[in-house]
Design a protein that fits this description.
164 residues; elongated; 2 strands; two-stranded antiparallel ribbon; single chain; mainly alpha
């Protein structure tokens, strides 16, 4: 579905009285799968990096799968950034116009922006002290994001079910 088709889909749903902020089931599954993939690969990288190092001939060495978790995390990040455009068109623009969950939505937008910017810095920054600070921010925001996302989703579903 391209941008024009998404707009038509949203208009058609509004015309039939459907909740305008909801993604189609197919897109919702894709978004959830991508967010799950990026979160799990990030967690797995942390576990392999900090807890599953191997002792080599010259001391601690990274686990062989550590690099693969990071590569998969980066690939999932590209998918999530692409899906952010879908979410912006179908969900965020309309959601920002409604006061009900605007605060949690804005907090999520800021958290995603922090993750995207910190991910970029982790990839390109060469200063070790900057990378250490950015790494900590990236981990803390990334680990906390699913909790806020679940709260945002559950509260939205409850309001939708109640007809608010």
């Amino acid at each position: 579905m391209n941008g024009t088709e998404l707009e038509r889909h949203a208009r058609r749903r509004r015309a039939h009285g459907e909740h305008g902020l909801r993604l189609s089931p197919r897109h919702r599954r894709l978004v959830y799968a991508a967010f799950f993939a990026i979160w799990v690969t990030g967690i797995l990288w942390l576990v392999f990096h900090y807890f599953l190092q191997r002792q080599g001939e010259f001391g601690a060495e990274p686990h062989p799968l550590e690099a693969w978790w990071l590569r998969l995390h980066g690939a999932a990040a590209f998918v999530v950034l692409w899906l952010a455009g879908l979410l912006w068109i179908v969900h965020v623009r309309q959601g920002l116009a409604r006061p009900k969950r605007r605060v949690s939505g804005i907090v999520l937008i800021v958290m995603f922006a922090v993750l995207a910017a910190s991910g970029w810095l982790l990839y390109y920054a060469s200063d070790d002290s900057l990378r250490d600070a950015v790494r900590l921010i990236h981990w803390l925001v990334g680990l906390a994001l699913p909790l806020l996302l679940v709260v945002h989703i559950v509260r939205g579903r409850k309001r939708s079910a109640a007809g608010k």
